[in-house]
Design brief:
The structure is a single chain. Helix content is 40%, strand content 30%. It has 5 helices and 7 strands; from the N terminus they run H-E-H-E-E-H-E-E-H-H-E-E. The protein has a 5-stranded mixed beta sheet with strand order 2-4-5-7-6, covered by helices on one side.
């Protein structure tokens, strides 16, 4: 219950994020590296191979560090929660036009086509039994969506059997 209340508070803060962004120039690969290091014990415990692939040029975004860290934290947490034992996760950054695209790709059963359009909705869980086992309440991706959109970015997802990709783009 305490975890759910904390998640609801994070969602409320994400809703209000547009009005309270403290933007600074950030090297996004540095933030991803920090978050991955934080979660490395979780990945090792499940024998998940994790790889990061960053653009050869330094990618800067003008963003609120704490809010962007929260989005990256939620996406990384989803990767280790929903990747099966012995699976693979890849996090990459790529320049696209005047933006930076960040992809979180994990192996696993994928998300059914009929559920994919709803994964960023509050309290939506594609497989309620699996989400309960992993401790999810269907709030994490809703928080990420709010935070990315507060920065003027866009977010999306693609899935097929064997792979799920959650991505977002922020203006460089």
């Amino acid at each position: 219950l305490v975890h759910l209340v904390d998640n609801l508070q994070q969602l409320a803060r994400a809703d209000a994020a547009r009005a309270y962004l403290k933007r600074e120039e950030i090297v996004i690969s540095d933030l991803i590296t920090q978050i991955v290091a934080l979660h490395m014990p979780n990945f090792h415990k499940k024998q998940i191979t994790i790889e990061t692939r960053f653009s050869s040029r330094e990618l800067l975004v003008k963003a609120d560090r704490d809010k962007l860290l929260q989005a990256l934290q939620n996406l990384t947490e989803n990767c280790w929660k929903y990747t099966p034992v012995g699976g693979e996760v890849t996090i990459s950054s790529t320049p696209v036009s005047k933006a930076i695209r960040i992809d979180f790709v994990n192996s696993g059963p994928g998300i059914p086509d009929q559920d994919l359009p709803f994964i960023f909705e509050r309290f939506f869980t594609a497989d309620p039994s699996r989400s309960r086992d992993a401790g999810g309440a269907g709030i994490g991706l809703a928080i990420v969506k709010q935070l990315i959109e507060a920065h003027g970015g866009k977010i999306g997802a693609e899935s097929s059997p064997g792979e799920t990709r959650i991505w977002f783009e922020l203006t460089a």
